[in-house]
Amino acid sequence: LQVPRAPSQPLASSESRRFTNKHSKKALKASLTLGILLGMFFVAWLPFFVTNVAQAVCDCVPAGFFDVLTWLGYCNSTMNPIIYPLFMRDFKRAMGKFLPCCRRSAEPRPSAISLSMRNSNSGPRAATSLKNVL
């Protein structure tokens, strides 16, 4: 005796596999971005903190070297606005909407009214006048 298969079963399994594959790619990309950001943070700031502790214990760190390590940490903070758009598409889109240098010419800047309507979770209201609102 064979039980006939529903036609949606192979589609459902391939669709769930595609769904899982898509999310695993997103998770991998998010992990990679986080790893790069944290790696750069530790490479830039760990020498500063180790030197700071050594300076407190033995007072043997030259002032110029300490300044170089401080500026290395500052450079890391400068790199974050460069790293985020490189690895995060949503961040790039959001910045492109509000910065005139990054906006595409065919994409108009949204007005404050359209943004508030989009964020209010309500559709267009029929026959709403100023008298009804006040």
Q: Could you explain the architecture of this structure?
A:
The protein has 134 residues and is mainly alpha-helical. The chain has a domain at 16-98. Helix content is 73%, strand content 0%. It has five helices and no strands. α1 packs antiparallel against α2 (63-87). It is elongated and about 80 Å long. The termini are far apart. Residues 113-134 are annotated as: Disordered. This is 5HT6R protein. It is a multi-pass membrane protein.
Give keywords.
134 residues; mainly alpha; 5 helices; elongated; 5HT6R protein; disulfide bond; cell membrane; membrane; G-protein coupled receptor
Number of helices: 5
The topology string of helices and strands comes to: HHHHH
Question: The biggest beta sheet, please?
Answer: none
**First-residue to last-residue Cα separation:** 72 Å
Uncertain stretches: none
- What's the mean pLDDT score? 75
Percentage of residues in DSSP E strands: under 5%
Helix/sheet category: mainly alpha
Please provide the count of β strands.
0
Helix proportion range: over 70%
Radius of gyration over all CA atoms, rounded = 27 Å
